[in-house]
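User: For documentation purposes, I need each entry recorded in a consistent format: the amino acid sequence on its own, followed directly by the corresponding structure tokens. There are two entries in this batch. Please keep commentary to a minimum and don't merge the entries.

Assistant: Recorded as requested. Entry 1:
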Amino acid sequence: MEHPPRFRNARDAKHPEKETGTIQIETRKVRIDETYCSGNMECTPGDYVMLAVSDDGIGMDRETLSLVFEPFFTTKEVGKGTGLGLSTVFGIVKQNGGFINVYSEPGQGTTFKIYLPRVQQETSPAEVAQEPTIRLEGTETVLIVEDEEIVLGLAKQILDHYGYRVLAANRPDEALKLARSYKDRIDLLVTDVVMPEMNGKQLKNLIAETHPEVRVLFMSGYTSNVIQQKGILDEGIHFIQKPFSVKGFAEKVRTVLG
């Protein structure tokens, strides 16, 4: 049986130090809001079904990641790849009103997330559940660490809007300098899990040396199952997947702070 392009790529990207590799497939329903789409022109606000395909292979650097959907681009040897598989998938998803996000770091595997619009069905008033209300405003100090500029800007914009004092850094070393020089209390660290210099757990432990009271909210484009299997995070920690909505992110921050 011929495997789809993403599965072939995951198979071929097996880490050289491992005898076998793992491919995970996950699905869930998500809502994408206008704030997220304002920085991601490929998507439109609405309800989507997300299909995630993750591997634990060699990963990709930023240059490769930027070219991954280009027709005829391939990192494989001559005769082993045409460079058309992912570009074809990209075209099919776009034609059906969807979009694709890719998350990858060298040595940390890759996750492709495909978002396809959900078919809306009529719902009677009796079936509509009332969502519990939660206060979204806060005055605490939050340090955000994220190497994707768009995500960093979005998270900062959300927390600024709800009244938080926000410190922002796009690299772990920059975050450490900020934390060590900041004399007041840092209430919450919001950090990406997988980053080039160190992972989010290592960063939290270093920041806790000068700010032992700090709480932490981890975020990642990798799915929670993939993150747990990497052994970076323990069960029961606070975690949010990217992309997130304004309301979802603000609620999660407020929940962690208590």
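Entry 2:
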Amino acid sequence: MSADPRYFFIHVMKTAGTSLVSDLKKTFPDEQIYPHRTLDKSDPADVEPYTNIADLIAISPERRAAIRVYAGHFPFMVSQMMGIDFATLTLLRDPVERTVSVLKQFKRLTERLQASTLEEIYDDEFTFRHFVHDHQTKVFSLTAEDNPRAILRAIDVDEHRLAAAKANLETVDVIGLTERYPAFIEELRSRFGWWPNGLDQPARTNVSSESWAVDESLRQRIALDNAIDMEFYDYARRLVDERAATRS
């Protein structure tokens, strides 16, 4: 890494990534984190900079020189496309818990789904294909040949993509698990020197805290429908454990 290192956070939706970005703002000035609320957005509600790959690749040399941390919803492949020697990091989550959180967020924020049950949202084809189905494996297996405009590219994830996702995950410098968020923060502190005085209380933001009941039958459906993601997450947990054992 250079004396002025750059970082690429592969931000998987509903894994505590927004919490991490909030914590990053305690060690990096806002303008050094992409996307910035005014430098990279047309208005505060503009979500394109979080997801649009072409816009990210096309940012000006002057803006690129100022950015230290990239933290949008971009697939792993983008970290390799930019020609920058990044330190990479990511957070992953149990697929059932992640999906439940996605469903609750869509019920809370998407007008056409607010009157729907969680089961009905899960059965919504657009939601399932783009935000649920083996989503974490997709994030780590998309390629330039898939020609994705954004992470929302709907593809069928198979065993070949699972193998590619595992291989890509192995190259990520710091892997965290949502349920072990404090341990992830401590590893970042140790490895990169962030938050030298510690965090009194790591931030948790954008949390789905609604009391909407989740039937066990829905949880079982999620696990069965996302079997590849379940395997990918199990692999991630083993990788995290192996790395922790090596450090100790």
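Summary note for entry 2:
Residues 3 and 85 are 12 Å apart (CA to CA).
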